[in-house]
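# step 3/5: fold
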Amino acid sequence: MLAEGGDAAGVARSVPLTQEIVDEAIIAYGQNGEPLRPAHGFPIRLILPGFEGNLNIKWLRRLKFGDQPWMTRWETARYTQLLANGKARQFQLRMETNSVITSPSGTMEIKPGYNRISGVAWSGHGKIARVEVSTDGARTWKNAALNEPVLSKAQTCFQMDWTWDGKPTKIVSRSTDENGNVQPDRNAFIASMGTNALFHYNAQQTWSIDETGRVRNVLA
């Protein structure tokens, strides 16, 4: 299926019509009891649970059906993933297991003592089964609490209580979904995918906290 947007960029993506997609795909005209807003794709948009955002076509203009991919520019010049072995993965559609700590995070400042670490996790393969948080730069891990509801292919909020001793450290989260897919660290991701993962990066996000409590992004 070709899903074609009516925006100025002319975003169009080929979608394989698996039974899962047929069962779950939505053509949406409203949200939260009101018509879609222009920024969300008014008058209608395509929703494909578990698939990357660029396949959830906004301002949907038409659906076209055939027996081969359409090889649009978005599938050749933009969202094709170059791999570490020199080959390319042209159709990488599903969101991989991911998570990020949103508090504390970049530009924030914290104080010694009690802090609550919170964030979101998600996977295009199903429900989030577990989120682990490290407060010592990924040397040790503790399970975070998952906030209900925990739904398939949806963002899941997590949180963990933490007492910071005021010493510089790094905090990071990693998620695991119900199918056993584990969010990789940066080194493992690069070993598998290379360094050209502009559109499909799902490695663990590390925040550094210095002695003043300032939080900033670091590569770890």
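# step 4/5: annotate
The longest helix spans residues 186-193.
# step 5/5: archive (pending)
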